[in-house]
């Protein structure tokens, strides 16, 4: 085969191999994650916790620390219980400053999501505020955005639990 045809063949083969990658970006969601805001402080699952926790220190949380329940990961889970909600963070080791927010759970109707949903709200109000859920059953309305999940536990048409978590 002539050298010219070999070069053309190699060029075309390389071009065809790279064609599927054309226009692709890193697989990173551009959607804003679900967050919970209280007292002007935003808590986002997956985000660093240090500044948010410092801003909430005046709420006098009850803090407990235990070995992490994340499989195969050496570190600690730190629970911060505030009036109306609680936060769990993960840190690599005791005293490590870079805790990451793993989840936020609303405990009662004294706090609300950024869309105004509280414990006790009607499931229809959740759908009106957040749209159609990614997953829906008689007991769950689940929303996913970015690297976060927002879950509403439902019983008899009313919200009984609200949690913001890192998407699994």
Mean pLDDT: 84
Question: How much strand?
Answer: 25-35%
Summed up, the helix count is 3
Structural class: alpha+beta
The low-confidence parts are: 4-29
Determine the fraction of residues in helical runs and give it as a percent range: 10-25%
Walk across the major sheet and give the strand order. 3-4-5-6-10-9-8-7
User: Care to count the β-strands?
Assistant: 10
Give the terminus-to-terminus CA distance.
53 Å
SSE string: HEEHEEEEHEEEE
Whole-angstrom Rg: 23 Å
Structure description:
The protein is built from three helices and ten strands; from the N terminus they run αββαββββαββββ. With 168 residues, it is α+β, with helices and mostly antiparallel strands. An eight-stranded antiparallel sheet has the order 3-4-5-6-10-9-8-7, with helices on one face. It has a two-stranded antiparallel ribbon with strand order 1-2. The protein is globular, with a radius of gyration of 23 Å. The model is unreliable at 4-29 (pLDDT under 50).
């Amino acid at each position: 085969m002539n050298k010219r045809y070999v070069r053309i063949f190699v060029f075309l083969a390389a071009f065809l191999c790279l064609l599927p990658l054309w226009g692709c970006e890193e697989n990173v969601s551009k959607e804003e994650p679900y967050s919970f805001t209280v007292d002007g402080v935003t808590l986002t699952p997956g985000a660093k916790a240090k500044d948010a926790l410092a801003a909430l220190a005046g709420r006098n949380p009850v803090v407990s620390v235990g070995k992490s329940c994340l499989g195969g990961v050496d570190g600690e889970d730190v629970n911060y219980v505030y009036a109306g909600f609680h936060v769990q963070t993960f840190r690599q080791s005791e005293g490590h400053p870079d805790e990451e927010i793993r989840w936020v759970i609303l405990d009662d109707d004294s706090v609300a999501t950024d869309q105004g949903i509280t414990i006790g709200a009607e499931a229809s109000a959740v759908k009106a505020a957040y749209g159609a859920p990614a997953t829906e059953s008689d007991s769950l309305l689940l929303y996913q955005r970015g690297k976060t999940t927002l879950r509403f536990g439902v019983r008899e048409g009313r919200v009984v639990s609200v949690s913001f978590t890192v998407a699994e």
